[in-house]
Amino acid sequence: MNWGLLERGHWQLNNCLRESLDALRVLAHMIFLLEERLQQPLDLFRLPLSTAYDLSDQHSLPYLVERAATLLVKKQSAERPWANPYSDFIRLNEVIYRHLRELAETPGCGKSPLMWYVGRQVGHTAKVYRDLLAARRVTDNTEHLSKLAEGVSWYVACLRAAFNKTPPSKVQWADSVVDEITVIGMHYCDAGFKDVVVNCGGAIKSIARSCYRGGVRSPYDVADLLMGVWKLRLFAAARGKEETVGALDPMLERLPEIPEDQWKYVEDALALRKQQLEDEVEELSEGRIDLVSLAMREPEGLIARARREAQKAGH
């Protein structure tokens, strides 16, 4: 029904979508409770909940957002140059990311396999936004473009919130979510939206803090998450974005939750991970890696490409 309302530009679209998403949130809460009782994750692929977020379903929320973007570009006209051409698209997405925020704040979300689906949904939605801000831009009004870009930061904030209320010992899927956020930050660094990149870095640091609360996780767990910020920093440096690098550097400083005598273990873990990253980027740059592995290392691949392009530009 929501797809039909979208195609017709019906004024009740957002209200109907909100009701549908409210029902999904109730269903998700029931699943989280069941997972807690069973002490094991459910196979969400066989449940109706995942189809709302799954990229393999052409009627899922990410493709609803993509279709809304396509319709926006098609119906754009110059009759009202003073109006924000993205206003309807922004309002539609407000309904979706508020739903994701409520979902993220539901106890149990941060350890459910649903986070894997939601993380990929946000990654796909960020690509749709990027197209509207660059290749399919319909205005050069910086105020309108900035307002549109804010939506990406709101979506990223939803991912961060999922881990705030989850006991660190039960946090799952944080690594895959951080990878999604890292790739989003890199793409928006290329697009010139520094605020989005900084918000991505802040979200990654927040997830790392949530995972360490009480010292439950190992230094390597924390280092693996903070490497997302380091990868963003490397990418920004390769692109010559010094202001962005300067904004990201403080996010790699000691987490307030970790005492100084324990932080040195995290620093040691970070040093090892940084060296391993350099080795992987070098392999990618020299083509010494298969395509399957390359597809699983998108952040590393983007860093390698940025460095190659910087070297060519230098010559």
Beta-strand segment tally = 0
Unreliable runs, pLDDT <50, ≥5 residues? Answer: none
Measured on Cα atoms, how large is the radius of gyration? 20 Å
Query: What is the molecular shape?
Result: globular
- What is the end-to-end distance? 56 Å
Q: Mean pLDDT score, rounded?
A: 88
Helix/strand structural class? mainly alpha
Q: Count every helix, treating DSSP H or I runs of 4 or more residues as helices.
A: 13
Percent strand equals under 5%
Structure description:
The chain is built from 13 helices and no strands. The chain is an all-alpha fold and 315 residues long. The protein has one domain (2-314). The termini are far apart.
Give the arrangement of secondary structure elements:
Elements: H1 2-8, H2 13-38, H3 61-75, H4 87-104, H5 114-133, H6 142-161, H7 174-191, H8 194-212, H9 219-238, H10 242-248, H11 260-285, H12 291-295, H13 298-314
Record keyword descriptors for this entry:
315 residues, 69% helix
Describe, in short, the structure shown.
With 315 residues, the chain is mainly α.
